[in-house]
Recover the amino acids of this structure.
């Protein structure tokens, strides 16, 4: 009797990650399209070297390397589960994609990248809002030093209005309405996706390590405002910083070195 090899669940989980994220970020594909439009306008070279910061399972890297066949990317995240899923789904793109596990809360997170001062761009999406403002500011300072003199930083993220403002309350209410409609239409939620991950025996070790990073209930939705983000980029040394796209409080902010 022939024993079939088990099907690797990671490509399917990667696909489902992309789908479930659209319930939280309306027109998510448009976000990436604008991100890359701005990037390639500011840095038109075909052989860009990009740092995918807080990469998750590699949504930016996968799209970018498909779009620019001569580009290279270094994908950095602390989450062992998301890294395992991303690497299992995307591989190394014929040597053009390198995966690095590093914690942005550690001041030495960039020491193992081996690319100091040689990135054309630092890109991030839907990730840095988890960082405390002081850590976020320090991350921007380190990113600035990783960039070449004409490098750019682009962050597509939840960058809200100030806490307690009526505009923030209105935007949050509208975003909740959109999510509710998506779930009523059958969209998979964040919680359901993680349930599927926990059901995969091959990810048990990565899940156990993840639990040591964020004990149950310990994560805080920090959400530094867009005003703080722009100020932090300028303080880090960027010559210009500003929002180039937004939908409610989902924004793309750019820092020009």
């Amino acid at each position: 009797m022939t024993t079939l090899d088990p099907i690797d669940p990671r490509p399917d989980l990667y696909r489902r990650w992309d789908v479930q994220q659209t319930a939280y970020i309306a027109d998510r594909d448009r976000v990436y399209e604008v991100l890359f439009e701005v990037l390639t306008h500011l840095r038109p070279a075909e052989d860009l070297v990009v740092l995918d910061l807080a990469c998750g399972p590699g949504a930016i890297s996968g799209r970018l390397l498909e779009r620019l066949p001569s580009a290279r990317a270094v994908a950095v995240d602390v989450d062992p589960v998301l890294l395992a899923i991303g690497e299992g789904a995307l591989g190394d793109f014929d040597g053009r994609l390198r995966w690095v596990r590093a914690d942005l809360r550690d001041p030495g997170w960039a020491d193992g990248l081996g690319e100091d001062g040689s990135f054309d761009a630092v890109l991030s999406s839907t990730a840095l809002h988890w960082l405390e403002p002081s850590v976020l500011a320090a991350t921007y300072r380190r990113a600035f030093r990783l960039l070449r003199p004409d490098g750019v930083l682009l962050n597509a993220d939840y960058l809200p209005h100030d806490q307690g403002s009526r505009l923030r309350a209105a935007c949050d209410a509208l975003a909740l309405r959109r999510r509710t409609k998506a779930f009523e239409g059958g969209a998979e939620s964040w919680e359901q996706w993680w349930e599927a991950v926990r059901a995969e025996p091959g990810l048990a070790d990565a899940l156990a390590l993840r639990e040591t990073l964020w004990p149950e209930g310990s994560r805080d939705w920090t959400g530094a405002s867009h005003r703080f983000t722009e100020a932090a980029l300028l303080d880090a040394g960027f010559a210009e910083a500003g929002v180039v796209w937004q939908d409610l409080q989902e924004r793309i902010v750019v820092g020009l070195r």
Notes: Strands lie at 49-53, 72-77, 97-101, 119-125, 147-158, 240-247, 250-256.
